């Protein structure tokens, strides 16, 4: 056997190129869609109950922003699980679409809200280059979604309010987003990881290592 042939046989077999860390897999799309549909149903339930839930805030409507964080949940939750660019925006927008298809009192406008709230969460994960997914980043993502919700709803629905009321609503929506959507999503991911439901994702593996 020639030395050239011997060297050729000693070379390791080339391995198939690994998919990029940010490339979506089929399982990512499926799970993100399931998360979005589930939270979309939650959005619809929350919307259907809004009139009753907001009664205690009738004397000071801007305080009702404390309840709005639930509508920001899909974005942070999807991003914490999938950990890929676009996950927050995709999940929040799809969840809003599901709630619109079922039927809400705000009609197709919820699609605009879903896009804006998803963008608010997405920008936070982008700020950390999609490399940080701890509790602090989750809370910031929820806060970002809540902030975008507060500002956009002041433009779309609360235009007749005084600036002070609009400012209070933006703050209460931001706080609600940070707690209900950000912290809430982080706790949900921890619970799902503990059950083994996220074994195919880095979110499941990292949660078990803590």
List the defining traits of the structure above.
transmembrane, disordered N terminus, 9 helices, membrane, ABC transporter permease, Arp2/3 complex 21 kDa subunit ARPC3, transmembrane helix, 210 residues, mainly alpha, globular
Task: Describe, in plain words, how this protein is organized in 3D.
The chain has one domain (24-51, 67-199): Arp2/3 complex 21 kDa subunit ARPC3 (Orthogonal Bundle). It has 9 helices and no strands. Residues 1-10 and 12-18 have low confidence and may be disordered. The protein starts with a helix and ends with a helix. The relative contact order is 0.14. The protein has 210 residues and is mainly α.
Poorly predicted spans: 1-10, 12-18
What is the CA-atom radius of gyration, in angstroms?
21 Å
What's the β-strand tally?
0
**What level of helicity do the residues show?**
55-70%
**And the CATH topology?**
Arp2/3 complex 21 kDa subunit ARPC3
Outline the biggest β-sheet. none
Structural domains: how many:
1
Mean pLDDT: 90
Percent strand equals under 5%
* The CATH class: Mainly Alpha
Summing up helix and strand content along with how strands pair, one would put the structural category as mainly alpha
The 3D shape can be described as globular
The CATH architecture assignment turns out to be: Orthogonal Bundle
Run of helices and strands: HHHHHHHHH
Q: Distance between termini? A: 54 Å
Pfam family, one: ABC_cobalt
InterPro entries: ABC_thiamin-permease_prd
Transmembrane segments: 26-46, 58-80, 87-104, 110-130, 137-157, 163-189
Keywords: Membrane, Transmembrane, Transmembrane helix
